[in-house]
Structure formats: structure tokens, C-alpha cells
Amino acid sequence: MIESALAGLVLILQWKALAFMLLGILLGFWVGLLPGLGGVTTLALMLPFIYAMKPHEAMAFLLGMHSVVATTGDITSVLFGIPGESTTAAIILDGHSMAKKGQAGRALGAALSSSLLGALVGALALALAIPVVRPLVLAFGSPELFMLAIVGLAFIASLSGQGARGMVRGFIAGGLGLLLATVGQDPQAGVARFTFGTLYLWQGLDIVAVLVGIFAVPEILDLVVRGSSIAGDAPVGQVRKGVLEGVKDTFHHFGLAIRCSLIGTFIGITPGLGGPVAQWMAYGHAVQSARTPEERKGFGRGDVRGVIGPGAASNSKEGGSLIPTIAFGVPGSASMAVILGGFFLMGLVPGPDMLTKNLPITYSMVWTIVLANIITVIACLIFLNRLASLTNVPGTLLVPVILVLIFIGAYTANNQYGDLIVMLVCGAIGWLMVVAGWPRAPFVLGLVLGKIAENYLYISVARYHASWLTRPIVLALFAIAVVVICYPIWQARRTRRSEHA
Amino acid sequence: MHNKASLALGILVMIVSASGLISAWGWPAKAALFPLVICVPLFFLAAAEVLWALFGAEAASASDFKLSEHLPQSVALRRTGIAAAWILGFFFGILLLGFLVAVPVFVLAYLKIQGGRGWVFSAVFTAVVWAFFYGLFDLLLHLPFPAGVLLSWTGLR
Amino acid sequence: MRIRFALATALALLALVGCNRQTQAPYFEGKTITIVVGYKPGGGYDATARLLSRYLPKYIPGTPTVIVQNMPGANSLIAANYVYAQAKPDGLTLGTFNRNLPIGQLLKVEGVKFDMLKFAWIGSAASETTVLAIRNDLPYKTFADMKNAKDPIVVGATGPGANTYDFPLLLKEFLGVNLKLVSGYSSSADIMLAVERKEADARAGSYTSIAPFIQRGLVHPVIRSRASEPEIANLPTDESLAPNPRAKAMMALRSSPEVVGRPYVMPPGTPDNLVQILRDAFTKAIADKDLVAEAKKADMSLNYVTADEAVAVMKEVLNQPADIVEEFRKYVKFGE
After folding, report:
1. Which residue from C minimizes the CA distance to B144?
2. Neighbours of chain C (3+ CB pairs under 8 A)
3. Cα of C153 to nearest chain B Cα, Å
């Protein structure tokens, strides 16, 4: 194994492969930063260019581009409150709040360092898991995936507000998300559910349009209302100074960062859960790390842990999702599907071969992820001051540019005007939710997990009738779900008891 | 304010879940199961929230950020209305004129009217934004942007 | 003398005019042709379109740029409607979409706003064939073995309308084989993983998508639909095992669109000369040896099906008698 790892490193360090990787990084940097450009579409556009390259060069290019997108997407989310990619929305809640308080530098520092940590953990997991990856993935059948979705949904409890009424609101938001997930043609009977007779809704709601609407639109409305820059009245110097402090924060909360990286890697490994899930579960876990209800209230207002968690998870997920793609040919996400196309173009056949005969190429991919992320973080740190200063730009200049970008972003996802309408409607709902004090995170969780939960439940029941309920991993996951739900309740009771003492 | 918005949302969710329930009733069992299982508790939870909003005390707000609070409510609402009007205006501009025309028109209008900027600055800024948008999305990436209803009607595109 | 001079001048002028016509710029020069794909990037239709977009310019006079535009939604109904009604018939738009659209039109699915027969057909870039493949470690080696199976064989599927679902459904209904259809997997790759996990025993799908797994030794095909590839020519076809003409008609109807596996059309009303240019370009591009090599690397195999053949298939599907259509409707819904 060590020889293959070293062989993989040698492959990457050839100047041609490095050059392609740098080119990919440059592209990915801008793709992640601009909300109008989707990572998946750009990857597809790049596929024709890799015909002339050798396999490891092509992978360096594609993966170099892909690894960077999650990191720079975080930057857009933190600075402007716009999800740069669908996988970087969770970081908005706390990251952008920090930017509004003039702490953009600190938020970016935390986001970048946790992203790097996450990427390294994901790459390490990929490298170490190679011997055990096949049995690991094969052990996760539809019943396990269903239970995993339930665990994800259980985080709704942590992401809800305080007290009984807070819980109710959280579950309403979650339920609404679950309901909206059923829009579209169902895979059991083929019924077109809730499509109102339009063709546009057949495939369901587009997650990008929903996320951009529910997060970016209220932000923009608020920006206009305040009439100032994003950072408000915070002094200019303060915005830039915080970067180092943000990096220190990541190390201060090292345990949390590592745990969220592991969550992200794990979600990435299990195919079928999809990209957006990892960040929200990591965010839920970060919220749980608050020790008192007072601390919990701070989440969503600018707690740096709300930046570290999702930042780590969205990058570690990338390394994780390479595993099913390489080992089984099952893409873990939409971008992996395109990269898989690249595999075939290169004559690489995913499967056991990649883990034995072509092991050096697999390791070269691991090294690409590591190197690409390190280079990106260094590049970002150089430009970070400039980027953070954008939060001092007057709102009246930013608003039109941001609006242009989000309209383009929502439209070009599917070339449908319907996406713009969905974005506006979700914008209105998002604004109402913020004013009413309803949490939006449970809504997103419900939306991304709804289809998965429903489909895998049906498959499990059809295939195993009731025996799947007693499978060991299923039971373990169920226990975790129960703990996740009860944790906030138990924590509240404990604080009340210590207050009375 | 918070309570009123919560009440409005609660009623909205009640309506949505009720109509979901009614739609799903006629579907085959497998297609209807999940929507029904979701809509029934959703309806009652939303009803609980509505009752709370009407008769209960102000709730603690959620783990989500708040909109700026330092302005008086009427001013904030008025400005929100203006912002919403701009956004909707941009949307209809895109429908009628197509992205390529609506983008510079909107940016220019916003800078002048809302931003109160001078003509020179606004024109230059608009030109830069438009060049960037056109160069990147149209020329380089060939992403398609349809012409806009008005222009197709008058046969200009 | 003057007459000869005049004649010479006239001839010279004629020659000049003749030359001029030949050196007139070709229609497509400096233009961009857009291929509208009814699916998101990364899928088979998209990959085929992108491959073609790189080789077509060579064979179109004027060497235009050819780009791909994705317009996913409603199983490519949206893209088809767009190419039918909204795209201009100026030769600059091509459309490629779901091969099952004629079935959608036949079943009068709501939202179908096109008539497959009125498109300006270029042809098909490939024909597909559906096979049912079962895991190698199962005791059934041929389809005949499967028919005698006592325990149900679990077939994973994505949903009604996809060939992963429809093909085994018809096999179960008409050939009486003990299949248990488990639907809801998010993609055909997921089904393959389930097969590897032994959660599912078999999977139906297009031969090209299953081929890598056959080569890997995971599954082997047992039965196929009417179109054929050299490697699977010896397999029984579903139609040949049909017990009665009605069953055979059902299976035939399901399979017919597969010959036109990657349909390419232009908007109705496109001038005939432009359509012909594209047809020639397709024929030559698909025969181009570099394209063939690249396609092989990517596990794609393209073969050009002419426009006339494609239209004949469309007519065959759309002219089915009403009672066959009603019966078909009971089993097969429009989908992927």
C-alpha cells in the first residue's frame, strides 16, 4: 500500500499534471465563488478537454477543479449570504451573521481552515479505507440508508428553537420541507404529485432555486432596509484582522472540527444520500455542542462553531464521495456522475481494479485533493483581505450585482423560468420565517432527506418485509437517532436542575 | 410583528397541509402514504402554532438570525416593500425584455433611483457589470438566455 | 472581330459569375449550432451529444461551432416542446431527447405539445437494446432456468416509465416468470450496487450501461429486447417467447422506440437542404474513425440510423390500434 501511495504522489508531482491541477484550481475557484456558475455544469463543459490528457493528468484537472468549489462556495456564503453551491448553504446561518457583525475576516479564517482540515480528513479516510471500502459500502443496504435518513431528520430537534413552542415550529418547518420533497413523479406508482398540471414540477423542486430563495432573498431585503454595507458600522480594520483569529478558532474547537469532518466523510461514502445532507447534519451536531440553552441561542447569530462544522463537512464529503465512485462506479453526487464520465473517457473502469491494479492512480486522486485544497487555502489567504473588504462596499452597489448573479444562477440551473418563480416564492417564505422566528434549517433537512427516506423505506419493506428492522446497523442507527432527538431535551432539563440547585 | 408573521405562516401551513391531504386522498396507496403521513401531523402542529400566536405569549425566537432591529418597524416595513418591488420589477423585466436587456436596465435604474448615484458612475458601473455578465455567461460558456416576451412579439429578436 | 470579342467577354463574365456562386460563403460559416439535450449533464444522451458536437463541425461546410445546451425536465418533454414550437427552423437548432417520447405521444400524456412525425428528422446516433441481467452467483444461468425458479427473483428498478421497470414488468406479466419488482432506487447505478450487495438479484437496463458490469463478471444477461448487439445476439428475445399475439404486441410496442435510441431532430419547417447537410454530417461523423475510437473508450457505441428508418419507427408506434393502446396503458406509463 505504501508503495502505491508513493507512486501516486510521484504521478502528481510531474509538471504536466501539476499544471493541469493548477488550471483546474483556477477554474474551480471562480466557479465556487460565483453563484451563477454550477460546479456540475462546468465539470461537464470541461470533459471534452481531457481527451488529450493522460489518466492521472485528467484526474488532476477534474478533481483539482472540483475540490476547490466547496471551499470558495463557502466564501460566497459567508460574505454575501448567498449559497454559492447547494453544498455550502448551512454555513450562511452563522458565517454571514458574523460578516454582518464586522467579523468577516474571522468567519473566513474559520471557514478556510476547517475546510482544509475537512479535506485532509476526507483524503486520509479515502486513503486508509481503501482496503475495507468494499465491504463497508456493501454493508449499507437500503434499510441502513433509510435509518440514516431518519438520523438526519432527527437533527431537526436540535435545530429547532427552545422550549415546546420552538420544537413545534422546528417540526412544522421540517414537515413542510418533507412535504415539498414529495413534489414530482413518484417512483412507486408513477403518479405526478403536486405538480399543478405543469411539466416543470415533474422532476420535483430544484434545490438550488429553493436554497437561493430561502437564504439569499431575505438577506438582500435586509441589506436594502439597513441601507449600509454588509458589515454595517463595524470599523474597516476590524474586518480584516480576524482571519488569524478564525484559524485559531478551528484549532480551539479541534474536536468538533474532526467530528464534523468524519460526519462529512461518512455521508460522502454512503451513496444515495446526496451532497447537501452532510453540511446540515454537521451543523446540527455543532449546535448540539452548545453546553447551555444560552449558548444554543447564539447559533444563527454568529457562533463560530456554526462555521467550522459545515465548513469541515462539505469538504470532507468530497473525499468520501470518491469512494463509491471509484470502487463501485456509483456516483455519490451529481458532480461525481460527471467525473465518472471522465473515468470512462480515460479508459478507467471503476471497480475492484481501481483498488488493485490501478491503485497508484487512485492514490494520485487522494494526493490531488490534498494538494488542491492546500494550494487553494493559501491562495485564498492571500486574497482574503480583499475579499473580506467587500463587506464594506456600500449596499447600493452590491445589491444589483448580487441580484443579477442569483437570478442567473437560479435560471441557468435548468434553463427554466419556473426556477425563478420558485426562488421568489421561497424568498417570500424565507423572509416570513425569519420575521416570525421560525428556523429554516429543519426545512432544508426535510427537503433534502424526504425523497431518500420515502424511497428507501419502500425498498426495504418490499425486499425484506419486516426483518430489516432487526439488522444490527439499523438498530445502531436507530439508537443514534433517539439520542439525537432526546439530547436537547435532556440538556434543557439538566440546566434547569442546576439552576434550581 | 413576530407574532403576526408567525400567525400568517401558521395559517399558510394549515392551508397547504389541508390541500395536500385532499389531493393525496385520491391517489393509489403507495403514492399517497407519505404525503398523508406528513400532512396530518403537520396540520395539527400548524394549528397549535396558530393558537399559540393568537392567545399565547411571545415565543423565544429560533436558532436562526434576526433581521436588523435598530430601525422603527414602519420604516423597516416600508423599505422592505421597496426592496421587494425592485426584485419583482427585475423579474418582470427579465420576462419581458430578456436577460441581456433587463440586466443593464435594472442595474442602471437601481443605481440611479435607489442609490442616488451620478450618471457617469452609474453608466460605467453598469457597463462593467454587463460586460462581465455577457462575456462570461454568453460568450464563454454559451449559456442560453431567451429573448424576452416583449421583444419576440415585436419581432426584434 | 467584334462578335468574337463580345462572345469572349460574355463567356468570361459567365465564368466569373459561375465562380462567384461557388466561392459564395456556405450557410453555416461563422454560425453556432446548438444541440438541445433533454437531460442534465453526465447522462448518456448528454455524453453522446457532447461527443458528436466535437466531430460534426468537420463535416458541415463552413465549419460552424456546435455547442450543447441542457434543458432537463419532465423526462425531456420540456426540451421536445421547445424544439418543436419555440426554436427557429433556421438550421441552427438540433434536439435530442428521450427515445420513449413517441410512447408519450401515443398515450396522450398531458404536456405533450409536439408531433413526432412533424419534426425534421436527422436520424438516430445509436440504437439501444434492453437486457435483463442477473447476478452471476445465482443458480440460474438462462432464462429458462429463471422460469422454473421457486423463489421470487428480486429485480431492482427506478420507477414506472423507465426500462429498468417496464421491461421486467412485461416479462412478469406475460412470460409468467417469478419476478419481484422493487422500485424506488434513485438511479440505475444504485440498482447495480444493490445487486452487488445481494439486496437485489437482477437489473434490467440498456445493454451499453450494463456491459461494464458484465465484463467485470458481476452479472450476465439472460434475455434481451428486439434490437441486437453482436455479443448478445444469441440471447432469446422477449417477443420470441411471447405466448400469444397480444403479449407480443405489447412487448413490440415497448421495444420499438429503442431502435431510434438517440433521436436527433430539427424544428418542423427547417429547409430541406439544411436538414440534408446535417444528415450527411451525422453519417460521416459517426463513421469517423477517431470518433469510433473515443466512443469505444467511453463504452459508447454509435451507429447511424437514417431519418427514413427513424420516421418509419415513429409511424409504427403512433399507428397502433386503439385496443392495443388501451391495454398497453395498463402496464406501461410514460417515463424515462
Report:
1. C69
2. A, B
3. 22
ipTM value for the complex: 0.88
Q: Does residue C42 have a pLDDT over 80?
A: no
Give residue C131's identity as a one-letter amino acid code. Answer: V
Q: Cα separation of A35 and C137, whole Å?
A: 48
User: Min CA distance, B40 vs chain A (Å)?
Assistant: 10
Q: What's the confidence (pLDDT) of residue A189?
A: 80
Residues A215-232 have pLDDT tens digits of 888 888 888 887 777 766
A401, A230 contact by CB (below 8 A): no
State whether residue A170 sits within 8 Å of chain B by CB.
yes
B133 interfaces chain A, CB cutoff of 8 Å: yes
Range of the domain at A126: 2-33+40-500
The residue out of C241, C256, C271 marking a domain boundary is C256
- Find the CATH number of the domain harbouring C202: 3.40.190.10
| Subunits with 3+ C-beta pairs closer than 8 A to A | B, C
Average pLDDT in the A21-44 region?
A: 79
Query: Among A419-423, C90-94, C295-299, where is mean pLDDT lowest?
Result: C295-299
Q: Examine the domain organization and report whether C118 and C171 are in the same domain.
A: no
- Could you give the count of Cα atoms lying within 13 Å of C48 in the half-sphere of its Cβ? 28
C-alpha A133/C-alpha A325 separation (Å) is: 11
User: Which amino acid is located at B67 in the chain?
Assistant: L
pLDDT, tens only, A474-498: 899 899 889 888 877 777 777 777 7
- Report if residue C208 sits inside a domain: yes
Shared-domain flag, residues C143 and C200: yes
Chain B hits for C41, Cβ within 8 Å: none
Name the residue type at position A421.
I
Q: Are C241 and C146 in contact (CB under 8 A)?
A: no
The verdict on C329 touching A (C-beta cutoff 8 Å) is no
Mean pLDDT (chain A) is 82
User: What does the domain layout of chain B look like in residue ranges?
Assistant: 4-55, 83-154
How many independent structural domains does chain A possess? 1
Q: What is the pLDDT of residue B155?
A: 55
Provide the whole-model pTM.
Answer: 0.83
Inter-chain contact C74–A188, Cβ cutoff 8 Å? no
What domain range is C269 assigned to? 30-127+260-331
Q: Which of residues 462-501 of A touch C (CB under 8 A)?
A: 462-463
